[in-house]
Design goal:
The protein has 4 helices and 4 strands; from the N terminus they run H-H-E-H-E-H-E-E. By secondary structure, it is mostly helical. A hairpin with a 6-residue loop joins strand 3 and strand 4. The longest helix is centred in the N-terminal third of the chain and has 35 residues.
Length: 148
C-alpha cells in the first residue's frame, strides 16, 4: 500500500498540482500585501484619508476609534473595509489567472492551415466542374480559353 501511495504521489501531474498550489498560495500572499500596503493607501488618500481596513459598522452600539478597539471591547462589527480589500485581492488574482490561461491557450492554439489550391474550375459554358488545367470541357466539349 505504501508503494502504491509513493507511485501515486510521484506522478508528474500530482507534483505539478502541488507546486501550483504552493505557488498560488504565495502569489495570494503577494497580492494581499500589494492590495493592503501599496494599492489601498493611495486610494484612501484620494478619497480623503480613508483607511479601508478601519471601515466598519458597529452592530452592538457605541463608538470606537478603530476596528481594533471595537474588537477588543467585544463589539459586534461588520468589517466592510476588510471585505473591500478581500474583493480587490480576488479580482487581481482572478485577472492574473485569466492572463496566464489566455497565454497558455494562445500557445496551444494551432495555426489554421492555409487554404488548399483549387483543383477544379467551372466551365463558362455549361458550369460543370472540370480540372483546372483542362483546355476543353469534357461535358459540353467547348474549347476553353486561358481565362476560363
Amino acid at each position: 500500500m505504501l508503494k502504491e501511495f509513493k507511485e501515486f504521489a510521484m506522478r508528474g501531474n500530482v507534483l505539478d498540482m502541488t507546486i501550483g498550489i504552493i505557488l498560488g498560495a504565495a502569489f495570494g500572499s503577494i497580492v494581499t500585501s500589494f492590495v493592503n500596503d501599496v494599492l489601498m493607501p493611495p486610494i484612501g488618500l484620494l478619497l480623503g484619508g480613508v483607511d479601508f481596513a478601519n471601515l466598519y459598522v458597529t452592530l452592538s452600539g457605541g463608538h470606537y476609534a478603530s476596528l481594533a478597539d471595537a474588537q477588543q471591547a467585544g463589539a459586534v462589527t461588520i468589517n466592510y473595509g476588510l471585505f473591500i480589500n478581500t474583493v480587490l485581492d480576488f479580482l487581481i488574482v482572478a485577472f492574473a489567472i485569466f492572463l496566464v490561461v489566455r497565454q497558455i491557450n494562445r500557445m496551444r492554439r494551432k495555426p489554421e492551415p492555409a487554404p488548399a489550391e483549387p483543383t477544379t474550375k467551372k466551365c463558362p459554358y455549361c458550369l460543370s466542374d472540370i480540372p483546372i488545367q483542362a483546355t476543353r470541357c469534357p461535358n459540353c466539349t467547348s474549347q476553353l480559353g486561358a481565362t476560363a
